[in-house]
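Lab notebook, bench 4. The sequencing result for the construct came back, and we need a structural model before the next group meeting so we can plan mutations. Quick request posted to the team channel:

Model the 3D structure of this chain.
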Amino acid sequence: MFTHLKNIDTAFKHIKQFSLFLIIGNVITMCFCIYKSSQVVNEAQNRIHILYNGKVLEAIASDRQHNLPVELRDHIKTFHQYFFDLSPDDKAILANVSKALYLADESAKRQYDNLQEAGYYNNLISANISQEIKIDSTELEGKQFPYTFTCYATEKLVRSSGTVYRKLVTQGEVRDLENQTDNNPHGFLIQHWQILANRDTVIQAH
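Done. Here's the predicted structure in token form:
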């Protein structure tokens, strides 16, 4: 009889151990499933579908902080192109500069007013000069907003008598507006902007 009870007790312990292992296994399996499900959901949230030319394209969203230097440089480049890419046409000049002023504060407006008062734009129009700018490099400093930048560029002024190349150096800061608009897609604003140098380097006669 004691042997029979001992066998029952041993069998009960085995069943108890088996049940415990089964419960632990189920818990581990459930945790793994929850983890994988969360991972799939996060990946799905980071996927963006873009409609381009009637086709649906898939893109991966990334953390803005990771792409911040690229966005800052593009904002600075766009501003300088709007401000310095000029045609010998008063309406075209005004249209371009107006776009640039959406990307900067009153310091850019002061630079525009100074150039206008000095007759710079009138000289472009009267001499039929077209002006283009190429950004050579943009240096960023700082670890948080406002970021300080120094922009190095080359201006190309084309006239009937020849082509003039100028070295342009500007400096300023970029702060975050924390929202984007059609006129300011990056949501940044250039402030304390100043032209440090704008001098002729090469003159090519036609």
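DSSP finds five helices and six strands in the chain.
Will bring this to the meeting.
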